[in-house]
Amino acid sequence: MRSPLESRNRLLDAAIGAIRAKGYDATTVDDVCAAAALTKGAFFHHFRSKEDLAISAAERWGVTTGALFQAAPYHLPEDPLDRLLAYVDFRKALLQGAPQDFTCLLGSMVQETYLSRPAIRDACRTGIFGHVATLTDDIAAAKALYAPGADWTAESLALHTQAVIQGAFILAKADDGPRIAADCLDHLRRYIALLFGREEGVKP
Amino acid sequence: MRSPLESRNRLLDAAIGAIRAKGYDATTVDDVCAAAALTKGAFFHHFRSKEDLAISAAERWGVTTGALFQAAPYHLPEDPLDRLLAYVDFRKALLQGAPQDFTCLLGSMVQETYLSRPAIRDACRTGIFGHVATLTDDIAAAKALYAPGADWTAESLALHTQAVIQGAFILAKADDGPRIAADCLDHLRRYIALLFGREEGVKP
DNA sequence: GACGACATACCATCTGGTCGGTACGTTTGG
DNA sequence: CCAAACGTACCGACCAGATGGTATGTCGTC
């Protein structure tokens, strides 16, 4: 017998993959079971409902991507603005392969569920805004250093970066590739550089 | 008997409303029929399938929003940069009410369908990139005027504006309101102003 | 032997889609 | 001028398959 946690995580990973590719509603419980090589009995042993699965998947997404970003090298520079720019570079570097491999589970799921499944929407909101919060400190520090009197808040700029990234994902799906999304991140990087008076061209 | 075009458009408008609120997959044919006060027989008289409906709805969305933007006052300024900034202001002014009332049908639908329904994805892509094309000329003119040597293309900036707008919609849905989205459009406006050397504060 | 971790079989409901039929307008032929 | 023939718009009952969820049983481990 396998470890129950492993089975549960296999189901969650299968769900994350399926929802990223087909969306929440088009993903069936049988899809998830098949992808996880488990049966429906196992599924409903670990999750009370499909909605419960989605919420747990959102939480797992938050945990795994949180670990990915925390371990990423963009935290290394001493200058907070350098860290912020490195974050954008890091996000750009992640744009590899097909859209279902680099786009965000939470961003797509919240679009489907924001009205009809408030619990799922809340889970997505928590994940998205939690990631925003990890950026806000660096942005606030950079602002204090380079643009103390600016008439925008650190949080609003952090949210803006997420808007660009999420919007770039939509364009990537419409265009079926990461090219346009990468261009958008270039514009985001240029904006940040302009905003803080760091004129250096787009790529360091 | 009503005019057949009126019935068809009623079905399309009902579909647009339902898909914007619940997404493509969660929207049932019966939902659409009920909202249009017609029966399933009428539905399948006008559309071959649910997918056909979605494609036609995307086309109608393109036509109606195209007319809305073409008639909008942001085309009035003589300076192309002023037109571009007025476009952003116009988009910000549209952020009223609940997310399902101001967000984009195509942006949300393409997220669900980009892999499993290529025909719908193509219809969304046509609509989105068609709107981008209406911006590109003004941006190109503004670039020729104010930033002729810049290392970005007019089209990439037009695409970036759409990324910000679409991403702002996602955040609006996650937050259940337009506040964050409006802040994102402020950042977009600030970026454009910085990019073209028009430093005037955010709001004119 | 009790309990957690599954599997299997099954069910009620929903969903997209079909189909025969009806009401009504239009065309055609005499 | 009229009526048969035909086409369009629409209705509503029906269907096959899919879907979320349940009930029950089995197997291995503590």
Describe it.
Two copies of one chain form a homodimer. Chain A is mainly alpha-helical and 204 residues long. Chain A is 74% helix and 0% strand. In chain A, helix 7 (105-113) packs across helix 8 (118-146). The longest helix of chain A is centred in the middle third of the chain and has 29 residues, at 118-146. Chains A and B meet through helix 7, helix 8, helix 9 and helix 10 of A and helix 7, helix 8, helix 9 and helix 10 of B. The structure holds a DNA duplex (30 and 30 nucleotides).
Defining traits:
74% helix, mainly alpha, homodimer, DNA-binding, 204 residues
Brief characterization of the structure:
The first copy, chain A, is mainly α and 204 residues long. Chain A has ten helices and no strands. The first copy, chain A, has helices at residues 4-22, 29-36, 40-46, 50-70, 80-93, 99-102, 105-113, 118-146, 154-175, 179-195.
SSE pattern of chain A, N- to C-terminal = HHHHHHHHHH
Overall number of strands of chain A: 0
Can you tell me the overall shape of chain A? Answer: elongated
Mean pLDDT score of chain A, rounded? Answer: 95
Report Rg of chain A: 19 Å
User: Residue share in helices of chain A?
Assistant: over 70%
In whole angstroms, the N-to-C terminal distance of chain A is: 52 Å
Number of helices of chain A: 10
Instruction: Kindly name the structural category of chain A.
Output: mainly alpha
Largest sheet of chain A, in brief, is:
none
